[in-house]
Amino acid sequence: MADVFSVIPASVLRNLSDKLYEKRKNAALEVEGIVKQLAAAGDHDKISAVINLLASEFTYSPQANHRKGGLIGLAAATVGLTSEAAQHLEQIVPPVLASFSDQDSRVRYYACEALYNIAKLSADSDANVQSAAHLLDRLVKDIVTESDQFSIEEFIPLLRERMNVLNPYVRQFLVGWITVLDSVPDIDMLGFLPDFLDGLFNMLSDSSHEIRQQADSALSEFLQEIKNSPSVDYGRMAEILVQRAASQDEFTRLTAITWINEFVKLGGDQLIPYYADILGAILPCISDKEEKIRVVARETNEELRSIKADPAEGFDVGAILTIARRQLSGEWEATRIEALHWISTLLKRHRMEVLSSLDDIFDTLLKVLSDPSDEVVLLVLEVHACIAEDPPHFRQLVIFLVHNFRVDNSLLEKRGALIIRRLCVLLDAERVYRELSTILEGESDLDFASIMVQALNLILLTSSELSELRNLLKDSLVNPAGKNLFVSLYASWCHSPMAIISLCLLAQTYQHASAVIHSLVEEDINVKFLVQLDKLIRLLETPIFAYLRLQLLEPGRYIWLLKALYGLLMLLPQQSAAFKILRTRLKAVPSYSFNGEQLRRTSSGNGQILHHMPSGSQITEDGDGIPDGASSHNGINFTARLQQFEKMQHQHRVHTKVQAQLRNSSISLSREVQRPEEPQHPPALDMSGPPSRSSRRSPVQ
């Protein structure tokens, strides 16, 4: 013992039992250095003497501070021994393990820490050190599994602190301890699982296959225990799983989403506050590149959506909507689709809560109308339709929709028909068209209004979803509902001459159609007009206008129809395909039904057209029994309507001229800026000749 005191200074021994932790720690570092020097010199007798001193005089001392210092000293001595530790473990380990049953909790804590520091040898790459560490590991495990004095509560904090180390040897050591402790019947490792679960998941992406396998095996065992346990802390673990479900490692994501799937089935009310976070983890996984992950994620999503939680139980509708809104801006189609399904489900179950948060998601829902996926667009339209069941929200939807069409021309061009047709199915076609017409009637952007009306008109004439609307318009002259719809659409259809003519042909107001055609002036008949006219002529050959073509079999009764069609024919270039199509159709009109008196009256524009048919059995020609210029028929004031159309077209002509002048001014200014510097003595201009042809040409309209 005297030799030991000559090796370790008295001041070190005194500090090793000091009440201050810092002094004990510094003394332990001195011990580590002394033992390291002895090991280098190969003096194992003195090393044994030092260990015996620390054990007998300190760890077994009745003084608590002595016992604490002894435990720290033994750990330090082991570190100093490094690769020579194996031959001294039988001296070091017993006093440390004996301290696990100490009455002082702080001593027990230092015992755990000392044992861990001793076991850190397992991180050493030296084969001899590894062998010693494994020997220690087996020894301690055997003692712990057979002891009833081991304090798991004091061991877990030490384990948690070291779970995220990267050293593969330490990781193996930790997983081994977790597995062994979990196998002890008297130790409830499941209750402490949230403390080290994240560390286990972190090991699933280790570069070592063996470590990944060990971590996966441990996790599988714990998951099975969870299924069989009546009491589990799902909440804390759910937070960990949500984070791990976004891991870059594929195997980690699959394991995390598998755990989440089981938690959703087992967690019950405990998980309600975590539904939004769980959904945030599930939705991206639905579009994962790995099929196994996609399958589990879809199953979990369906399971979660089937749970009818109540806001009174902590179910946060706003948080779910926030997650869904965020995913709507993502790059994966499948995820966007499921996000919309969630919004739709919430609208059905918690409508008031969703509408109270509508301002947070409405802009995003509108942007989704431009989504490249048709399926996504159709789904978001269903969501919009569900929201628009309330009149204020309906009008807001249509206003925003028109706004989006105005600012994004490609949306109207690529998706306009799809959006309008679907809304007509979901929200009633007449209601949608009436609202659109009301908004477009006062549209200040005349160019956009014209384009929008032309698009709506084409949808009206061609879509199967709007067949009932077309049938209603066909009865405009005999049915008050049809008349009201005709008048409602007429106001905005005035933005496009061809749309008005189409509407009149559809509503069988043929005399008015002829009047509209005759009211057109030179500026109205431009390239755009002729393109629209070409489309109409081709539409007249479709089944939708079969009734009109059949009416041509009785030209004596439908003279205004014939006159309107001939008027269109006169507007078409003779070499155009549309001219040939319409002329061919008109050549097929039988001549036997014509009456000279009828033709004379029609051409004069002042006579009546007589119709020989049973009372109320057929639709009459517009203006039947009414001289040209009469104010109304079935409540429709055609004179006022024509004035309305002419006024709107005048606005369009003025607008076109102003735009042309602005373009010319811009071009002139640009040329002025680009013109090179003139010479000091410019040549005189020849003003004697007439202006060139190009200088007299008016701007293209």
Automatic annotation (TrEMBL):
Compartments, as annotated in UniProt: Endomembrane system
Disordered: region residues: 604-633, 660-701
Low complexity bias: start-end ranges: 690-701
Biased composition (Polar residues): 660-671
HEAT repeats: 92-130
Biological process terms in GO annotation: phosphatidylinositol biosynthetic process
InterPro entries: HEAT_type_2 (IPR021133), Vac14 (IPR026825), VAC14_Fig4p-bd (IPR021841)
Predominant location category: membrane
PANTHER family: PROTEIN VAC14 HOMOLOG, TAX1 BINDING PROTEIN-RELATED
Name of the protein in its database record: Vacuolar protein 14 C-terminal Fig4-binding domain-containing protein
Organism: Carya illinoinensis
